[in-house]
Amino acid sequence: MILLQGNNIARTFGADVLFEGISFNLQEKSRTALVGRNGAGKSTLLKIIAGVEEPSAGEISKVKDLSLNYLAQDTGLSSDLSIYAEMLSVFEDLQKQEKRLRQMELEMADATDLDKLMADYDRLSEDFRQAGGFNYEAEIKNVLNGFSFPENFWQQKIASLSGGQKTRLALAKMLLEKPQLLILDEPTNHLDIETLAWLENYLKNYQGSLLIVSHDRYFLDKVTNETLELSRGKMTRYAGNYSQYMEMRAEREASELKEYEKQQKEIAKLEDFVQKNITRASTTKRAQSRRKQLEKMERLEAPSKGEGSAHILFEPEKRSGDIVLTVEEASVGYDTVLAEPIHIDLRRGQAIAIVGPNGIGKSTLIKSIIGDIPFIKGTAKLGANVSVGYYDQDQSRLTANNTVLDELWNDHRLLPEVEIRTVLGSFLFSGEDVKKTVGMLSGGEKARLLLAKLAMEHDNFLILDEPTNHLDIDSREVLESALIDFPGSILFVSHDRYFINRVATEVLEISKNGSQLYLGDYDYYTEKKEGEVQEEVASLVTAKEIANQDYAQQKDEQRNRRKLERKEADLTEKLEDHERQIQSLMEAMAENPEDFVRLGELQLEIDQLTAENDEIELELLELMESL
Prior knowledge:
CATH architecture of the largest domain: 3-Layer(aba) Sandwich
Number of strands: 18
Largest sheet: 6 strands, mixed
Helix content: 40-55%
Strand content: 15-25%
Shape: elongated
CATH class of the largest domain: Alpha Beta
Strand order of the largest sheet: 5-6-7-3-8-9
Distance between the termini: 52 Å
């Protein structure tokens, strides 16, 4: 079933066309990625789909009563409540049902029509169960823990949290609300690798539809199965995740080029025949026929050469020694130790990725190695002929008042301006772009400028702190290729697992207990960690089974208890009836003291009733012990 459909959507700003003629549909339970260069209009299109903005042309249609949630990029949750109270507010209806169930349980003690009350209770209890009433608190706990909010943090006021924490909570609340269509713009920002893995698993099992914009290709591969490409103002659909989309796009482009070249050869052949034969009497008719054929031919458009890509090349001036970096028994942190002991033995040609949870000290380790902050304990030693080039994720090494041209030229005054412009051009700064001040640049432009500065240094050891931040997917892929071809050594921090897989030869995991080296890429690292994950999954499955068993057992116990209570009431009523009969028989005996035959009959009835009462009292005693 189609949940939402776009028909000939366009967005223009004056005479500038961002995109036009875009049509698409989002199916029930679809997993769709929206990809394209920075500036292609992805976020704008998401806002139009979510109803935040209106299209310049076209329309969005959706099914009646569609529940839709939209998480804009870096949008934080605003609330005066605590973390837990805000998450609990999602289940307000279930809380009301639960309160009613507790009230009904209290009413059972004095109910005049217990059977009707029990029937109503059973019906409401089943509705409560099917709506997730017995699981919602566990679900809140699962989601908050998944987003790295430990239980001792749940009473913290949301207003006091950081921007990144508020963004994570906004996504957490949306997941708990379970809309039919969830629209996410860069949901992986501010998430460490462990949280990303949890979110991927959660979204894979999500019952609604997903529309996602993300630069995290690994995340898209894991979560999506359909890709919409927004390029040059047009949209193309591919059935597959990101990696499959890349393969299919390359195949499509190759096929289109082949068909175009084939037609161009045919056109050239026909035109040549017409030109040579149109004036000859013997061949004029055939030439005219060929001309008509050309006129009727539906000309294929020349395939797009694609949007411009940066050209990055890292070429060291000199070769380092075999030993590049040694870190021994190191402790990193500021006032307190974040991680220890850390050991690194990096050799020429290695590319080591540093991974670990947010706040464990990965960037702190990088800053300690380059000497920006001291180690709490331990040392870092560089090998012979090692020259270090450093990429700072904070982009603090750029001067805001410089022009783009001066930012490079100030460090290389002996080079002619034309050479500096050529380098900047290869990083997509051309024409008037080089006269922009650094402070006016976007995050992606600043990242490319930093990489240009790094390439100009010609160092043989690159230390990179989150180099893919702010880069679009195309620029990330260009950077990956440049680093793969780099003949020097690399030490880098990144949460981009796709990037790690392509670039890293080893993975160094940092934890509070120190460092551990894994001799492979990110997938190898996760395989080695899989045992722990399987144990965790097994424990979760066991907990769920126990919860289900507990629920079934609880229902059986409640049912049995109600049966016993009804039986107790019946026996008590029977006992009281027998007592009344005995009292009546004794009164009859008193009225006929001389009728010995009648007295014998009455006494026999009294004895029978008394014997029955003894049995009833014994049964009641056993029932009371059971209750």
